[in-house]
Design goal:
Elements (H helix, E strand, L loop, with lengths): L1 H8 L31 H6 L4 E3 L2 E17 L20 E8 L6 E11 L2 E10 L10 H6 L25 E8 L2 E9 L1 H9 L10 H4 L13 E2 L2 E8 L2 E8 L11 E14 L2 E21 L10 E20 L2 E13 L10 E3 L5 E3 L3 H4 L1 E4 L8 E15 L2 E12 L19 E12 L5 E14 L9 E3 L2 E7 L1
Parallel strand pairs: 13-17
Antiparallel strand pairs: 1-2, 2-3, 2-4, 2-23, 4-5, 5-6, 6-7, 7-8, 7-9, 9-10, 10-11, 11-12, 12-13, 13-14, 14-18, 15-16, 18-19, 19-20, 20-21, 21-22, 21-23
Length: 483
């Protein structure tokens, strides 16, 4: 597909990951240092040339490989993540599987910038994430819905996500960049998702980062809110400091997983600190009537079919992140405090609504379409959640990176008092999650890199409620092509 696109277009694009964390001022045509556009199919494959024409760039990523999990589940070609690199309730037997999107979500996009006046530029970006094996557009909520009514021991690797089958399931925005900052509107990453990409040592990898696979961190507690379809985002650099703000307007009917969201970011860079640069950012967030799609209805030892359930809550968080760069060495650390509270408008969904994946859910409809809406999950007390991570990335050579990371979740007991002597018997008991991962990433050609790594993940206490197994290890190898 990509090679056909190249031979038809003879145009170009710079290598692009899932997001751009900070808008850059547009360079004048005379000062542009962009590599020359591709002039042949061979150029497209073996050089760094982009697919660009008249300021418009076609770009993309294909990322695929193989994985083995000590406790795993079958591949799901609809899900964004594809397989359960991370321990999940349904993770069952040891198995080999296809490994899509191990380092980066496979995607195809088009972006551009057009000068408007001195220092002013019109910008846009439209990108869709897909599975490189099934070629389906990533649709996390629907991959969960596909498992409704299936016993836990027979479920495949469905997982909720902000990517929900839209042709713009990554981003779809336009805006203006100027000396006064960058203002963009419509489908965009949350500020917390931008921060995860910038400050997670694994770059939000599905195969090697739990905060990349799950989206709890980037979505202020619920992964569906890592992206907003109708939002206004503003960023500006003031000397060594930076400010960001995001407002999500509109509700479920506009393909959002909340009825309103607000985020504010303050950060900056401290140069020449022990020979390196320290980057720090703080982000405060509030998400109203947030939606989380999951399967609910029984606990072990029962493995009966479960009901597709939309849980609503008002979520707030504070994220603190830092990164120190000194030559080939990068050190990372992050922390997020998340609070789940009862929804401020428990009837925001009325008796039913269509989620961002296109599936209709309604209250107490188990007998009708096997769905339910839960407005009372935190009525007995707010749920608090702590996320910590740290890691290191070292460039052994210009083409070889070694990366290691550690992640920890902590959930204090919440809600109605229960007997937590057997903590995993109740989801509201104190619980922990831990993961450690290592990766070697070798860029052996301008647009190609190969990687090999491993992640171990484990749940305990209340966070292990309903799990068939409590841990898994997943060595994974893959090949990535970015243009």
């Amino acid at each position: 597909m990509m090679l056909g696109l190249a031979s038809a277009a003879y145009a170009t694009a710079a290598s692009a990951d899932d997001i751009v964390t900070k808008a850059q001022p547009a360079a004048s045509p005379a000062a542009s240092s962009q590599p020359a556009t591709c002039s042949s199919l061979e150029d497209f494959v073996v050089t760094a040339c982009p697919l660009t024409w008249s300021g418009i760039t076609v770009y993309g990523t294909i990322d695929g490989g193989m994985t083995w999990a000590s406790h795993g589940a079958p591949f799901n070609g609809t899900s964004a993540v594809g397989v359960d690199y991370l321990i999940q309730k349904y993770s069952n037997h040891a198995r080999f599987e296809r490994a899509p999107n191990g380092l980066t979500q496979s995607n195809i996009g088009i972006k551009g910038k057009e000068p408007l006046a001195a220092g002013w530029t019109f910008i846009f970006d439209l990108q869709a994430g897909f599975d490189p094996y099934s070629l389906h557009l990533a649709n996390g909520p629907h991959s969960v819905a596909q498992n409704a009514g299936i016993p836990l021991t027979s479920q495949d690797s469905g997982a909720d996500s902000s990517r929900a089958g839209q042709f713009y399931n990554s981003v779809g925005y336009l805006g203006v960049s100027s000396p006064y900052g960058t203002l963009t509107v419509f489908r965009q990453n949350s500020l917390t998702l931008d921060a995860v990409f910038a400050y997670d040592p694994m770059g939000a990898s599905y195969a090697f980062s739990p905060i990349g696979w799950q989206g709890i961190t980037c979505g202020v507690g619920d992964t569906e809110d890592c992206r907003f379809s109708t939002s206004l985002k503003y960023r500006v650099d003031i000397g060594q400091f930076r400010v960001g703000a995001l407002w999500q307007f509109g509700g479920y009917d506009l393909n959002n997983a909340a009825t309103g969201s607000y985020q504010l970011q303050l950060g900056g860079d401290i140069a020449n600190l022990a020979g390196g640069t320290l980057s720090l950012d703080a982000i405060g967030s509030y998400v109203q009537n947030a939606v989380s799609i999951a399967l609910a209805g029984n606990t072990l030892p029962a493995v009966l079919p479960q009901v597709l359930t939309a849980t609503l809550s008002d979520n707030s968080s504070v994220m603190l992140v830092g990164k120190y760069t000194n030559g080939p060495l990068k050190l990372f650390a992050g922390y997020e405090f998340i609070q789940y509270a009862p929804p401020s408008n428990p009837f925001a969904a009325r008796t039913g609504f269509t989620d961002i994946g296109g599936d209709f859910v309604c209250a107490a409809c188990a007998a009708i379409n096997n769905t339910n809406i839960n407005n009372t999950a935190f009525s007995a007390g707010d749920k608090l959640f702590h996320v910590f991570w740290t890691g290191v990335k070292y460039a052994v050579t210009d083409n070889l990176d070694l990366i290691g990371a550690y992640y920890h979740y902590d959930q204090p007991a919440f809600g109605a008092p229960v007997n937590c002597a057997n903590a995993s018997a109740f989801p509201n008991c104190h619980g922990t999650f831990d993961a450690v991962s290592f990766v070697a990433d070798w860029q052996f050609a301008k647009k190609f890199d190969a990687y090999a790594g491993i992640m171990f993940s484990q749940v305990n206490g209340g966070l292990a409620n309903g799990y068939l197994n409590r841990s898994t290890i997943d060595p994974t190898v893959g090949l990535r092509f970015r243009f």
